[in-house]
Design goal:
421 residues, mainly beta, 3 helices, 4% helix, 59% strand
């Protein structure tokens, strides 16, 4: 595996492509929950996606069922007020169209026990700047995909409280590229001259778990809480690869092609999500929730290489813990049609002084609409639409003299089918 891709691409996966969550966590696992901006997803068992949302609530479903979902992200980026000493273009719209699939099965209540299995995306990033991008020396193309497999089990302690547990197997695949450009007065190269490229890619597997509690506070009110563990990735057999002819500096050639050994470690953070759902009357249910994520784990990343020039590199992040909030409403229009709406707010974990072209993330505001329709007593189709708007993200890279203002927004479309057995 090529080490630095895994390390740098994961921590670079913020903001622009994780349209529905803070940091680089994906939240497009359940289309039925997306309709309420994920408000109430750990307290309200709707379909088999409860295996991810809160495994403790699987017993709330009285029959076995299968749920297949897909979300489509259409993200837009505008780049303004650019100062780029190496020159270049600022087309924006750096995120390609992206599909995020997921699938779930749960046994439903089995006399106080329930089990299930899930496959979903837990982290994600895709950016693809044009080859002449003004910040190409800081970052060009990035792709990170983390796919999680999660079996789960739940047990009903009494008529009010259930607990659930699900170990997770997480596979990450990453790609990171950037141009190596000359700067004035180095090797005689003109500003912006491409001297070579770095292409970094790799994969690894990490393990974690989810633990949940679901409780019925009354006949009309339920609550839930889920802890999602940190996941450690440790890579000690990686490589750092560079290409290019290099340039003359101090009587030697710097930046020429080469392959070097490298090692690093990375821990993605734990999170706690809690929510409450209250049935106001026969038709209306309100939901509220909050999620805390320990992004402060990402302080810096140290990569040790055998490259005599590079040696050990340290990337500073100094991220902060973040909290997201959501509120939503479910309205049973009739026996077949259910309508949903929700609002959410996520504060970015990225401190302004550490934003880069790979991390143009700011606080975001989310509005969602959704609906579920029963095709038959055992079949349901769900759809959702989510609009995400970020505040302006000011990128100020003092070391390279690059600066720009990023304005990110996204539309997320979801479609889901559930079959009961």
């Amino acid at each position: 595996m090529k080490i630095k891709s895994l390390a740098l691409a994961i921590v670079a996966a913020a903001g622009t492509t994780t349209a529905f969550a803070g940091g680089f966590t994906l939240s497009e696992q359940s289309v039925s929950s997306m309709g309420t901006a994920n408000a109430g997803r750990v307290s309200n068992a709707i379909d088999a996606s409860v295996v991810f949302n809160n495994p403790a609530a699987m017993g709330e479903l009285k029959t076995a069922q299968f749920t297949q979902a897909v979300a489509f992200i259409d993200a837009k980026t505008k780049i303004k007020n650019v100062n780029a000493p190496l020159g270049g273009t600022t087309d924006g719209n750096i995120v390609p169209h992206t599909f995020i699939p997921s699938g779930y099965f749960t046994s439903g209540d089995q006399g106080g026990w329930a089990w299930g299995i899930a496959a979903y995306g837990s982290y994600g990033l895709k950016t693809n700047n044009e080859s002449t991008f003004a910040g190409r020396h800081l970052g060009d193309k990035s792709s990170v995909e983390v796919i999680t497999i999660q079996p789960a089990f739940s047990y009903q302690i009494n008529d009010k409280v259930s607990v659930g547990f699900g170990p997770t197997i997480n596979k990450v695949e990453a790609l990171l590229t950037k141009n190596v450009s000359s700067v004035p007065n180095i090797g005689g190269g003109l500003p912006g001259t491409v001297l070579g490229t770095n292409t970094l890619e790799g994969d690894d597997i990490g393990y974690g778990y989810n633990f949940g509690i679901h409780t019925k506070l009354s006949e009309s009110t339920s609550a839930g809480i889920v802890y999602r563990s940190k996941v450690k990735y440790k890579i000690d057999d990686g490589t750092l690869e560079t290409t290019g002819t290099g340039f003359n500096f101090g009587g030697g050639i710097v930046g020429a092609a080469g392959t070097y050994s490298a090692s690093t470690s990375l821990t993605t953070p734990e999170s706690v999500e809690a929510s409450i759902s209250h049935k106001v009357n026969a038709k209306n249910t309100v939901h509220a929730g909050a999620t805390w994520t320990r992004w402060s784990r990402l302080k810096e990343l140290s990569v040790q290489t055998s490259n005599p020039i590079v040696g050990t590199t340290v990337e500073t992040f100094e991220w902060k813990d973040s909290v997201g909030y959501a509120a939503g409403l479910t309205h049973a229009y009739d026996d077949k049609l259910t309508l949903r709406a929700g609002l959410a707010y996520d504060n970015t974990p990225v401190a302004p002084e550490h934003r880069s072209v790979r991390l143009p993330s700011a606080d975001r505001y989310i509005a969602s609409l959704g609906a579920g329709y029963k095709l038959s007593p055992t079949q349901t189709i769900d759809a959702s639409y989510t609009y995400v708007q970020e505040e302006t993200a000011e990128v100020r890279q003092a070391a390279s003299a690059y600066s720009a203002d990023y304005r990110n927004r996204a539309s997320v479309y979801g479609l889901q089918f559930t079959q009961q057995f």
